[in-house]
Amino acid sequence: MLPRQELLNGIENRDCIARIIDLAEQALKTWEITQTEFLSPPEIAEAQGIFRRLTEIQALSWGGYPQAERQRMAIARSEIPLDSSHVEIAAIDISGNFLFDTATHRDFLGSLLGTGIVREKTGDLIVLGERGAQAIVIPELVEYLEMNLTQVRTVPVKVQPIDLSELKVREPKKKAMTTVEASLRLDAIASAGFGMSRSKMVNLIDGGDVRVNWKEVKQASIAVKTGDLIAIRGKGRLEIGEVSVTKKQRYRVELTRYN
């Protein structure tokens, strides 16, 4: 048995992580590969932290393409080979003419969930503008959605399965930069990386729009470190690279911005 209570200490997404521990125990007992539903980035981060503490069990997450935010996780004993092919996912194309009635990510997601499925059964949604969208789902849902997803907003749509290789994923733009700051405070580093004023960054943090390693933070004064990922809703992500100290005792920080 895994040390459940010890593993759950300090965990925010307790119900989700408890279910993942159940799947891990099942994988240990049966020698079979188990799978989660789709997980959000904060859930993935906490689950990965759990598995790093365990030697007898391993986990691998995959969401259909390298930058996927929502992913399923396959779990197996450490002795069993595990790769992305063990994560069962499928993709669908949702096609329609959205030229005169533009649909957003929220519209497509609302129509998907309106068929009666739950969010945990769906992965990322890729909006293609006037042509429709693509969605990643569990394989068992493909036929159901072909029959039941017939309209998004006022637009009739047709759903058909596609290969994961047909996903039209936009590669994120990447920009490397260096900043020198008096401290490693979140508001200082993030304002430099995202090119905005410190006061505006503080407002975004206070408003709950900023996440560090996928967890919402509301303290502008927390210190960031190498490897941290700062995400701002609607503005992209910032990865903290190498941190060094200058002769004047200031911090030189390597940053990579994705948007």
From TrEMBL:
CDD domains: S4 (cd00165). Residues 184-246 form the RNA-binding S4 domain. PROSITE patterns: S4 (PS50889). One of its GO terms (molecular function) is RNA binding. Pfam families: S4, YlmH_RBD. The keyword Transferase does not apply. Keywords: RNA-binding. SMART domains: S4. This is RNA-binding S4 domain-containing protein. It comes from Limnospira indica PCC 8005. The lineage of its organism: Bacteria, Bacillati, Cyanobacteriota, Cyanophyceae, Oscillatoriophycideae.
